[in-house]
Amino acid sequence: MHNPPPGLLADPQPILNSAERLAAIHRTELLDTEPDPAFDRLTELATRFTKAPVAFLSLVDANRDFYKSSIGLPEPLKSRRQMEGRTFCHYTIQSETPLVLDNVIADPFYRQVPAVESLGIRAYMGIPLRNSEGQYLGTFCAADFEPRAWEPAHIQLMHELAETALREIKLGIALRELRRKAEEARYAAMAREEFLARVAHDLRNPLSAATIGIALLEYAKLDEREMRALQTTRQVLDSMNAIVGDLLNISQFESGKFVLHARRVDTAVLLRDSVEVMNGLAESHGIRLSADIRPDLPALHADYERALRIFSNLVGNAIKFCKSGDQVRVGATPEGRFVRFHVSDQGPGIAPENLSKLFDRYWQSDNADQRGLGLGLSIVKAIVEAHGGEVGVKSALGAGSTFWFTLPVAEGPEQRETPYTPLWH
Predict the structure, then answer these.
(1) Which tens digits make up the pLDDT trace of 294-329?
(2) Calpha distance 100→149 (Å, rounded)
(3) CA 169 to chain centroid
(4) Staple 274 to which of 311, 326, 337, 413, CB 3.0 to 4.6 Å?
């Protein structure tokens, strides 16, 4: 048994058996997989430019070389796609530099490799595939059945192809990890939304019963203190019902059960109704709520109830952050195939770093705020985008805020003839 060249182990098995190295190979998820065109292109380029009859990309496991891609290997090795026993690859992965052999028969150590006799290999060039963690995964190789002098350009080309193979492997690992994380996130979201939906459904019936009870008590003869207590309870129930409604809406969005019932809607009526619905809340906070209604507003093709929900969320938010004596205005402007609506307030404005987060689900500028779940604006965004519109905000600290959104204009005779009765008429 001839001694190996300096720096190489005669028996590379300890390197092959490294737990960290084997773990890195298994993370690629390439062992025992079908050929891949991405890798086949690389081995094809290797044979084309080096003029070598054989090229292959191998993953070196503890007991075998698995050929993820190969050109020119003889049968039955070509079909089996793996080789047991000692191979040139085992010595290639011991070094960061390529293993280049012009004539293996002339080398007393390498001519002992079984492939010299079994496959007739006479010249070999192997590039180690070393990942970013320093683990050797395998090799990218070219071989010839005759001795040959490998040119420096060939070695450089093989090195570049090996780097390309490593990038492809790394990309595959990253994509699979992203898919796994996306799937885990999807299941987590489904579980969360299912839980929220169940909670919302379980709360709806007792809240409805309590609301009916409060309504009946309003007809009873109560003194001033009892009436104030009753009104406070009614406000709490209204708030809880709004939260339940938000949870059910989010559940519908997540489950794909959210359906628009778009009809022809009078834009002026929608604006007037949005003020009428929210005026009581505004007055109770000392807020002046008004609508700017232009005479040239076209009709909408929209879900009236959902559009009204947009206004109730935006106006409700404006009222929540305004002080007594402030004004909130709603209005609309024609804008091509859409109508652009706005809700403007004289509130404290929004910090620039918070503008990009406003429409995120469950986000609130004040985590101590217990008046909602941070779902209102995300629901607005979902409803607007379901209509094919856009939503946004303009705001500056100390200068109030203007939330805007667009809804599509009604077009065509079918939309004009579609019967529709607004909810509040």
Answers:
(1) 998 999 999 888 898 889 889 988 998 898 989 999
(2) 9
(3) 22
(4) 311
For the whole prediction, is pTM greater than 0.70? Answer: no
Burial of 217 (C-beta count, 10 Å sphere; 0-12/13-18/19+): middle
What is the rounded CA–CA span in Å between residue 51 and residue 32? 28
- Write the CA distances from 257 to 188, 205, 248, 253, integer angstroms: 19, 21, 11, 6
Question: Which of the four pLDDT bands, split at 50, 70 and 90, describes residue 207?
Answer: low
Token representation of residue 243: 């939260």
Residue whose pair of structure tokens reads 């404290």 in the numeric block: 348
Triad 215, 219, 225: Cα angle to 5° = 90
Residue with tokens 């489904």: 190
CA distance 173 to 175: 6
Question: Which 3-state string (H, E, C) describes 92-111?
Answer: HCCCCCCEEECCHHHCCCHH
CB contact at 8 A, 270 and 300:
yes
HSE of 164 in the Cβ direction (CA atoms, 13 Å)?
15
Longest dimension (CA), the chain: 113
